[in-house]
Design a protein that fits this description.
- By secondary structure, this protein is mainly α.
- The chain folds into two domains: 281 residues, no CATH class; 215 residues, no CATH class.
- The protein contains 21 helices and two strands.
- It has a two-stranded antiparallel sheet.
- Helix 5 packs parallel to helix 11 and helix 18 runs parallel beside helix 20.
- The chain is globular and about 70 Å long.
Length: 497
Amino acid sequence: MTLNMLLSHLPALQVVVPLLAAPLCALLRPRHLAWAVATLTSWVCLLISLTLVAQVQAGGTLRYTFGGWPSPWGIEYVVDLLGAYVLLIVSLIAALVLPYARRSVEREIDPEHHSLFYTALLLCLCGLLGIVITGDAFNLFVFLEISSLSTYTLISFGRDRRALTASYQYLIMGTIGATFFLIGVGLLYVLTGTLNMADLAERIVPLAESRTLHTAFAFILVGVSLKLALFPLHLWLPNAYAHAPSVVSAFIASTATKVAVYVVVRFIFSLFGYRFAFDQMQLDWVLLPLAIIGIFTASVVAVFQENVKRMLAYSSLAQIGYMMLGISLDSVTGLTASLLHLFNHALMKGALFMALGAVFYRIGSVQLGQMAGLGRQMPWTLGAVVAGGLSLIGVPLTVGFISKWYLILAVIEQGWWILAALVLVTSLIALVYMWRVVETSYFQPRPAGAVIAGEAPLSLIAPTWLLVLANLYFGIDTGFTIDLAGSAAAALIGGEP
């Protein structure tokens, strides 16, 4: 009986556990204890996510109401197939990043700030999980702000003074995005008198011609596009990824933009309805060109970067473009490709940024010139970079290949062979900038007077290689991810109110 009661409260515990653990970390002055609490919390969140995935697959959508108030009067948490899928992505990355964090944080962040760092990281985790699980539009905004404010703080912990500038730039852009989003939600409330997203989806159906509804849609889309760094609203992202501590870069690159893409999918397909979005608002005429320009521009700019973290940041902008391209195709296959890439890109970018964190741990830099000859001195670390790079390019037997295969299938379904060629060309551009890293690391000698680096500690290498192996495993055994992404896409497009 007790176990059944516990299982019934898992949707609430998914958010409550990191929310309660965060202030506990702030009170724990021994920094190793704060790290232990944060790590244990992330594992609990992963266990809850796995259980929720199993429950949703077995019994369908879960609904959890607070205080006995049924929706739409009370706050409701909703876990459907898509939500369970994204909860799993976020909690999985957190569960691997936090064991990695202890040595990396000791190297990059002042000791007196460690407890506050883990507090902010758990608050960010809480906010991201809350965004995914909530069924209330205003509640989503609250969790969006929790995750954003904690992310600004996490970025500012970087020892490079440019981290403060990057954090401030993200603060300004993020605040503008949150304001746009809140204005859109406010307009929806004025129009319908409700904030529950399921109730909103029903009430806006007869209001499709309302200019207020059109305006709300535009404000929400622009606000979320700022958060996910859709071209040309991406200016905050390269500096944020490049100058944040390694743990922060790995975590937010793998989770934050993915959750923002989830919000776009949720509002387009579940709340407004894809017929309204694509037929009436002609969203594809906006998303498609922005996605194409973003993919090509970011891929080309990445080739010329000397800071490898900045190179991967521009690569992330291109990958965001791939996801938005899939959404803009308005098809089950296109949406499946986007949802697949949510998971797959989290794996590849998590592995790459964690490997670069191991490089920084040894030589104090991720400048391309400083990495010359490291392939022989740090074989496991640079091996992870190579494996992650192959996945990023889309080589067969990696998760990157699966994502791009489905995206090309979706494009060909529309008869757009030129776009299929673009996906292949930008994959070759990814080969160019990743080859620069491989060539420098393996075929150039160490610079005169450079630090003689040894292999990174096992606590950094082990989580990194777990993600690398996940890139290979889910690139070979695709049943789990394709089933989840395909079922979620079919439910979203087939389940319009």
